[in-house]
Amino acid sequence: MRRKIIFFLALTLTLFATGSSCNPTVNPDMQEFKEVMAYPPQWDGTKRGDITYQLLVYSFADSDGDGWGDLRGITEKLDYIQSLGASAIWLSPIHPSASYHGYDVEAYGAINPRFGTMADFKQLVSEAHKRNIRIYLDYVINHSGVNHIWFKIATSSMKNTYRDYYIFSNDPQKDIATGKIPMIATEGAGGYDSGQWFSTGTMPSGIYKFTLNWSNGNAPTVTISSGGTPDKDNPDQSAEGAKYLYYGDGICKKFYSKGNGIYELTVDFNSGWGFLIRTSNSSSWPLGTKYGAKKGTSGQLSFDVPFTLYTDNSSNDNILNLTLPGGNIYYYHSHFWTDWFADLNYGPVATAEFSLAFKEIVAIAQGWIDTGVDGFRLDAVKHIYHNENSDENPQFLKKFYDVVNTHFKAKNGRDIYMVGEVFSDWDKVAPYYKGLPALFDFSFWWRMNAAINQGQGLGFADATITIHKAYSNQRSDFIAATKLSNHDENRTRSELGGSLAKAKLAGAMLLSSQGSPYIYYGEELGYTGTKTGGDEYVRTPMYWGDRYVTSYTDKIDPAVGSTVGSVVSQEADASSILTMYRQLGRLRNSCPALATGKMERHPVINPQTGGIYSQVAAWYMIEGKQKLLVLHNLGQGEITLSLSESLTKPLFANGLVQTKKVKENFQLKMEGYSSVIFEL
Ligand code: MG
């Protein structure tokens, strides 16, 4: 019987028709407990629900059989994303990078050839827009990869424009302590974390000009400047008045005399120990007179500042090597403690918009907008500035948002969407609404996870309402990007003990709550996977059951293909988790109260008065005249509720839910992990 009902339900859900929002049929017969048969409204096709689908380009759909997911694969699977009711897609980074995941960007304006071409990207945008699906790019503004051309140039010499794009220091601990690095006035618990600084090498190579001033033979000087064209070896090998630059692996090059005691030489310099000035190129002792720094002093030079050379005819041991400015140089990366990212340098937040890195990263974002991009997901935004108890990051993000939005709005006539990743609890997230309209609501999932695992639903709605109130205090039109797990977390179902019933419950709670939900690809199939053994296990290829499955990695969660069914098999199963996600996607788009409604506490099932119902999460969703009652049983066991609301208009049910009428009240029997939504 139940299968027939579900089949009928699935049939009705597949019917599309025009018409307005919720308008369910009433179930008249309520005298005995009867299984709730949902009568969802017909969806008019309008995307109200603000559902975003998060996918990893490399794992999603491989159109050309090279093993890697690609842009054409996404285009060819847009109808699948459409079937979930999504109005946007967040793409993992699409730019060239050395890693599989793409967060070490090598060129912000380009597309990783593995994923396709710019034409493929424009085709994806165009086809998505035809379906009212927006495209959000993952934009990594905290750091670039060390293979980015900016970083390569920056580290190629001690003086070039791109050095300002990154944070370099000869002595990070001292420079932080003395306030010389505006983005890092404090760092780490101890004020300095050496694990976040990485050496560029002890002596950077590059082209340098060396100038000797021998006009005063008692106090000759050497001055170094950066850049230029290396000189050919000096053909004049006469010994009279000769001066030599001695460096590297026994290299000894003669200076050119410019007259009046001035000597110059430009070389492509590479030396681990620095250099000395000599008056002979003899390879045998005593090598002429040697000039350097006096023992006990620093032999490190500054650019364009004459350094007085020291010599000691009595003992060469008293003469120290001279080193280039900087000596051992470090660059900074703020998180992950890996040396293949380098943080971008935006300088003091007050003047960030004038920094070269800011101007360039904004210009490239504007270029993406011109290709049709609808928004950005900003990675790791809490790691941009590191000054504790300051609001520099929100300030910086507001500057970034405003300038990018100006460009977007002129083109599209609406504000751009931008969502920030602040991987923290809600109280740390809230202040970022001063900078961005949308932020991921990580704590939403963390609270739900704990509630389901403890079988305690009573406090969920109250906490969500309180936290979203805190967000609204920062920004009245805040967008809480609610979610379950994402690519940096263990999969939802694995966090819930591998239980499919609990995974469905989590999906139902997500899509029936206040907020703007993200569905992480695979959640709708009930994916499992944990980060133990590698992040790839929570980024497992999408299991289509057709030729689009990617194969770029061997690190695939073993449950995929065994306990997790493919898209093809789940589409044919009216009781699958995929079917449930599709039902809720349509329902959320049909009902204004689910789509944009406010969550309100239930008068009975709440932490103060609902003690006997502690396993239940209940709330109202309200928008205009529409009011919905949402109920989830987080407990393993069945529970029967007495409710004063009229339960005659069920819109959605997952699991066995039964109702009967007792005098003026209704009784509702919910099996473990079941969910139900009524229109009131
Ligand atoms: Mg491919």
Kindly state the number of beta strands: 33
CATH classification class of the domain at 2-44 and 598-679 = Mainly Beta
Q: By helix and strand content, what is the structural category?
A: alpha+beta
Low-confidence stretches: 1-21
Average pLDDT figure: 90
CATH superfamily of the domain at 2-44 and 598-679: Golgi alpha-mannosidase II
Provide the list of bound ligands, each named once.
magnesium ion
Major sheet description:
8 strands, parallel
Distance between the termini: 27 Å
Provide the CATH topology of the domain at 2-44 and 598-679.
Answer: Immunoglobulin-like
Total helical elements: 17
Shape-level CATH architecture of the domain at 2-44 and 598-679: Sandwich
In which range does the helix fraction lie? 10-25%
Q: Kindly provide the radius of gyration, computed on alpha-carbon positions and rounded to a whole number of angstroms.
A: 32 Å
- Percent of residues in beta strands: 15-25%
- The strand order across the widest sheet is 24-23-22-21-4-3-2-25
* Shape category: elongated
Descriptive overview:
The protein has 17 helices and 33 strands. The N terminus is likely disordered. The relative contact order is 0.13. It is α+β, with helices and mostly antiparallel strands. It binds magnesium ion. Magnesium ion binds next to loops.
Brief account:
The protein has 17 helices and 33 strands. The chain is an alpha+beta fold and 680 residues long. α14 runs parallel beside α16 (577-590).
